[in-house]
Write a structure and sequence with these properties.
single chain, 10 strands, Porin
Length: 184
């Protein structure tokens, strides 16, 4: 049930991001693209897991600097010591990110970018062998990222990026995603 709440929150957050973008009055800001992503996530002191999310390209703030919010979800699993050995603990992690990307001037069709932003992470209650052992928590973090984009067609862009997440639970993500460009 808790996973359903996180997934529902993921889609609600994306809807809010899209709604906010559509009311922008700046000429280069607005909903330029929307997409999905899959990630390999390695959080501090945990196993590598698979995450998924959604993102939006909200346009240029200034020349070459794009606003790129996203929402992400993954299950964090780790081995924890117990009285009779070790047990596997897991907790769901939901993130809302407000990132910016600076696109470097490059020849050709590939677009290289670097950026960063802030994040709000909500971690569900930890469970060990199905039993709740802690409370959920929310914390802020800082994202540092870099990547490359390849246009696949006039409206579809393939993105690969690496992201360092600096927070109470530091992590690293390698992400692949597709963005559908609107209005092209």
């Amino acid at each position: 049930m808790k996973s359903f709440k996180h997934i529902a929150t993921l889609f609600l957050s994306l809807f809010v991001l899209i709604s906010c973008a559509s009311i922008s009055h700046a000429q280069k800001l607005g909903l330029m693209g929307i997409g999905g992503r899959l990630s390999l996530v390695k959080a501090e002191d945990s196993k590598t897991s698979i995450g998924f999310g959604a993102h939006a390209d909200l346009g240029e703030i200034v020349n070459r600097l794009h606003l790129y919010p996203s929402v992400e979800y993954f299950q964090n699993k780790a081995e924890v010591p117990g009285f009779f050995g070790t047990a596997e603990a897991e907790a769901s992690v939901f993130s809302v990110n407000a990132d910016v990307r600076y696109y470097f001037p490059t020849p050709g069709t590939a677009g290289f970018f670097a950026g960063g932003g802030i994040a709000l992470h909500s971690t569900g209650s930890a469970k060990v062998q199905g039993q709740k052992v802690g409370d959920s928590q929310t914390d802020f973090g800082v994202n540092l990222l870099g990547g490359v984009e390849f246009p696949l067609s006039g409206n579809l862009v393939l993105t690969g990026l690496a992201k360092f997440v600096l927070s109470d639970n530091n992590g690293f993500k390698v992400t692949g995603g597709l963005t559908y460009l609107l209005g092209k």
